[in-house]
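lol ok so funny story. i was supposed to be doing the assay writeup but got distracted and ended up predicting the structure for this chain instead. priorities right. anyway since i did it might as well share w the group, maybe its usefull for someone
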Amino acid sequence: MIAKLTGTLDDFGPDWAVIDVAGVGYLVNCSARTLSALGVRGDAVTVHTELQVSENDMRLLGFADSAEREWFRLLTGVQGVGSKMALAVLSALTVADLRDACARGDAAMVARAQGVGPKLAGRIVNELMDRAGAVPGGSGVAGVAIAGISVAGSASADAVSALQNLGFRPAVAASAVAHAQAELGEGAGEADLIRVALRKAAG
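and the output, tada:
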C-alpha cells in the first residue's frame, strides 16, 4: 500500500495533483485545502496517501498531513459518504473545525460543504461525535484543553464528569469544558467551569 509520496509537484487541477517521484507521475485526488498547501508547479512536496481499490477503479487520495487522512477515513466510514463527498467536507472545513463541529454536534457547519445536505450532515456529526476528541485535529482550543481534562481529579475532569451525569455525550462535555476553561483560565473552579460549560453545551 502507498502511504506517502515525496517528490515534485508536476501539475494540478481543481481536485487533483500529479506528484513526480523519481520520474513516475502519481495522480492523487485532493481536497482544496491540500492543493492550496502544495504550492506551485516545481515545488518539492510530501503528501500522505490513501489507496482505494474497487472492481472498476483504483484511486489514490492525497492529504497535506496524517490528521486530514484520518478524518477522511472516518468520513468515508459514514453511510452515504464516498471519497468525493469526504474531500468536499475537508475542502470546506479545516480538520480542527471539523473535529470541533462533530464534538459540538454542529451539523450546520458540516452542511457548508458542497453537496452535503442537512440530513447527511446530521448523520456525520452523530456518528463521529463520540470519536472527535480521540482523533487528531490541529491545535484548536479543544486540542489544548482536552489534555488537561484527562487529568483525574482536576476541576476540569470533574466538570466533564458532571456534564456527562447530566446526559451530555462525552465528546460534547469535553469540548464544552475545554472552551469554558479557555474563557475562565487554568485556575477556574469546578462550579464555574460547569456553569459556563453548560451554557456553551446548550448553545
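Strands lie at 4-12, 16-21, 24-30, 44-53, 58-63. Confidence is low (pLDDT under 50) at residues 138-153.
back to the writeup now i swear
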